[in-house]
Every structure is written in structure tokens, then in C-alpha cells.
């Protein structure tokens, strides 16, 4: 099992709507994440728009690929893209770059 943490930047003017969207994530999106091997997935949002994501998975690359193959993820990413400041206009799921874990207390 691998722990994955990543950062993204949500546009400040979209913070409230971003929170609202994540208070009601589509059930089919939740099912797709689970089926793709995303476990213990959390998002944390700072007031300046810094978004910290954390998840556990056996293989992060495989989990990303599995989601990329779903229709629901394509719809979700299209709707979420305007919320983010993404380099080169990348979709949020394509802009996630795992941080290096330097310490863990089990």
C-alpha cells in the first residue's frame, strides 16, 4: 500500500462553490474511485485555495489510469477544471504530482 499526497491550487473566487461540489460528489464518481483502488481519500482546502489531497492505493499509476478510462471521471474533470489554476490548462487529475514522503509515524 502506498500513501500519496499531492497539491493543487483552487481559484480563490471559486472556493465556496468548490466546497459545495465536494459536499455532494456524484455517487457514480465515488464508486469509480473505489473500484479504481483509491482508499482513505481526503481533500483539505486552505483559505488561499491550496488544496492538499491524500489517498492510499496499491499502485498510484494504475489507479490514475483506471479512473482515466471511466466516463464519469471525464465528466467530473471537465466540470472541475475551471476551479483550478493548472499549468498548461491540464485537467486536475493530470496535474497531480505526488509529494515525496520524508517521514511517517505508524
Automatic annotation (TrEMBL):
One biological process term in Gene Ontology: rhamnose catabolic process
Enzyme class, spelled out: isomerase
Annotated EC: 5.1.3.32
GO molecular function: L-rhamnose mutarotase activity
Gene3D superfamilies to which the protein is assigned, alphabetical: 3.30.70.100
Keyword check for Transcription: no
Keywords of the record: Isomerase
Domain of life of the source: Bacteria
PANTHER family xrefs: L-RHAMNOSE MUTAROTASE (PTHR34389)
Listed name of the protein: L-rhamnose mutarotase
Organism, scientific name: Streptomyces xinghaiensis
